[in-house]
Amino acid sequence: MAKKAAAGPKRVTMTDVARRAGVSQPTVSFVLNDRRDVAVAEETRRRVLEAAAELEFVPNRAAQLLRSNKSFTVGVVTSGIVSQPYAGLIVLGLQQVVQPAGYVCMVVDTTDDPGQGDDAVASLVGQGVAAIVYASLAPKPLHRSPRLDGIRTIFVNCWPEEGHADTVLLADEYAGGRAAAASVFDRGHREVAFLGGMRNDYACKERRRGFDDAARAAGLRPADLVHRYGNYQIGSGYDLATDVVSEHGPTALVCGNDRMAIGALLALHALGLECPRDVSIVGFDDQPDVADQVRPGLTTAALPHLMLGRRAGELVLSAPDDAPERIIVDCELIERDSVGDPPRRRRRGTRP
Amino acid sequence: MAKKAAAGPKRVTMTDVARRAGVSQPTVSFVLNDRRDVAVAEETRRRVLEAAAELEFVPNRAAQLLRSNKSFTVGVVTSGIVSQPYAGLIVLGLQQVVQPAGYVCMVVDTTDDPGQGDDAVASLVGQGVAAIVYASLAPKPLHRSPRLDGIRTIFVNCWPEEGHADTVLLADEYAGGRAAAASVFDRGHREVAFLGGMRNDYACKERRRGFDDAARAAGLRPADLVHRYGNYQIGSGYDLATDVVSEHGPTALVCGNDRMAIGALLALHALGLECPRDVSIVGFDDQPDVADQVRPGLTTAALPHLMLGRRAGELVLSAPDDAPERIIVDCELIERDSVGDPPRRRRRGTRP
DNA sequence: GAGTGGGGTCAATACGTATTGGCACCATCT
DNA sequence: AGATGGTGCCAATACGTATTGACCCCACTC
User: Fold this and answer.
1) Would you say the C-beta of B65 is within 7 Å of strand C?
2) Dist. CA A243–CA A228, nearest whole Å
3) Which positions on chain C have an atom < 7 Å from some protein CB?
4) DSSP state, residue A349
5) Mean pLDDT of B90-116
């Protein structure tokens, strides 16, 4: 419990507006809420609006919430998303849609909370929320606080480990992985290595499925291709690429994400090879300020974080009834310069 | 205005707790707020706490706010911070401090708002906030909404363009720049180039001041050293490094941030040079998952975003009176592997 | 000209909490 | 015994809004 809390300044109330307009407080309420079912003379309506504008009236959400149990806040529960690069785009997209409607986002991060944020959720509920949006950096099952029963719950890039979700929003990792892989297979690459993220990770498994299907579509047997796993970090991309390239001499690397792709790029350089002349590289995520900035520009499948957030926002504003249980958003393939034709002849033997 | 807003479920109120404990609602209020100045029998107190726990009572912040004008929310106004890599650490640090005290952060991003977020601020004020924290990705002057008069205002990594701030929190960019530069001068490098961020940017200017002073301390004249400016992106680091290295053949590059340092690293590779054997590189920011992951690990000055956020949180919880007007937080030098001794002999002429 | 109906407005109230003022009870003091 | 003061509790109220159920007045119908 907190010991104290700061107080705000005196604020303009509906009663102030009413006095100024020479009407009663309920009349002001009717006008400002545009209650067309209650008759208000046009002249009165004008006076009220004018007075409200002059006084810069801002409705007291606390009073509204107390009286009507109508909330204008969206609770956002994230685990590490705020602190991670670019995934905050989910929150940004959500805000873009929701703010113009007068809503505000209350963001709570559960990263370092052993209780998985149950307390944080309790405080959100205490504040009163119109809906709760769980958002995750990487798609995975998330603990859903039991205190949320009866509250609209939306999962973005994650799904409830237990309990219920009104809607689950995910990126199409499979199709993205397939498109990314196809971008090299279609160019004629045959010796392609898959440098995945974390082996048991949902995204990694889906992207590998996509990779394997793209290989099959190209007439190859996935089992004949090299698959390795890392941890989505630059360093692991560097290490895996160093190993795989020197051992198997592939002509293309399909990486678990853009960070691993950068690691692979550095590794290539360290080995005296050039991208895409000697080896092509494909990333995943289209990480802003990275995929487009690196030299050569990275061909990659874009994770639609912003769009996921926006769709979530639309759900919040819409009626709970006509919301779908599941929404899948495409991962667009962004083609840049890191993929080229396979080199004419093999550069070195597969093994000493 | 929004047309509708979702309603929450029925919640446990103090009156429910009171009924269960066989006391009146005010008594519950006294107990739960630990009002020691009001006498409550120990036995009664116990019963109330028990009932509250059993019913999982969560105080209705809206009612508290309405009654006492005491808010448990902190309004956070950011411009692009949520969507940018790692700078969300400011928000995270803020939350870490503030959440245990029962506060929740309402985050509003003004990135794409032509009105600089005045509307957003108005909605924050409408919600009722204990304080407003402005947070910026890069240190710069920010527009302060006039509607905030009377509300506690804290600026993190920015300062008010006009109007008043209770406290301004900044990183010590000058000292950071100086330490970063010293890390190469102290090793004996003399031909050092400064690859800055945006020329007129506050951080860039401060870091350059630090760089120049470090040069003087090493017995060099800053005017004799190469200074170039980019835009903090990987690509600009790549381009500048390519130019500077081939034209002047420096033994060390002091970069505007870690992204530019990565660009420089890539450029070095492309030129057939190695870091730190041929050229040392220093970054700025200590960008998580990048500076430590890149090969070689980047020596860099750490931007104390998390700490800035935490300090802001402490301010929010403290009394407004004893808050300092200005807080400067150190940028710690993180030494990794991208800085080495200067090469014995010059690798190439300075000019053709 | 009495009755009807609807347009325009307002008084009163409820939401859940914090706070004020007071009541009842008991122990202690003169 | 009566006065005093402290302890332990509660009734009543205010915060700003939305909503219900009136009220008044005017125009219209028969």
Assistant:
1) no
2) 10
3) 7-12, 14-20
4) -
5) 84
